[in-house]
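Q: What structure does this chain adopt?
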Amino acid sequence: MPLPLSLIPRHRIHQRTIALEGWQRDDGYWDIEARLTDRKDHDFHLASGIRPQGEAIHDMWIRVTIDRQFNVIDASASSDAVPYPGGCDTIAPAYSQIKGLNLTRGFRRATAELFDSVRGCSHMTELANMLPTAAIQTFASLVRDTEGHAPDQKPFQLDQCHALEISSETVQRYYPRWFRNHKTGNTPASVQRSTNNKEDA
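A:
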């Protein structure tokens, strides 16, 4: 459901848009692309000059190429609009350092170290930190929601958030095969019988 309507009159002054896309390549790899734009609903005065209403102040891109194990095979970044031309747009090549990292193993910690303070762009680093979940959703498009990428492999999304903790009611309802009762350490017999019947069908 949408947010409740504001009870106080208001007018928008800023809009940030973030878009992420996952692409399956013909060479067996995947591209994850992220774009961030910032715009003002009024003429915005910067030290570098006036940015007219609706014109992008930030328009930044990051792309990583990954394999099935979420290893970053290649990485690049670019800026189409920045508040301080000749300054902000010189940092993009630094983000090639993402190459060699793994999106699901310490990625955000690594980017925080690599691009801390003046060694990076806060907006571009924020954008980079959205890549892991976009990659997970990209791979999720390739298999059924209730299956892993291989036989008997637990679906990746389980144990990754509150609702999908393996002892939760959500998992018991939608993923009975993988449900585990923490009190006993086992799948309840009733659920196991139900799962076995479904697998035999």
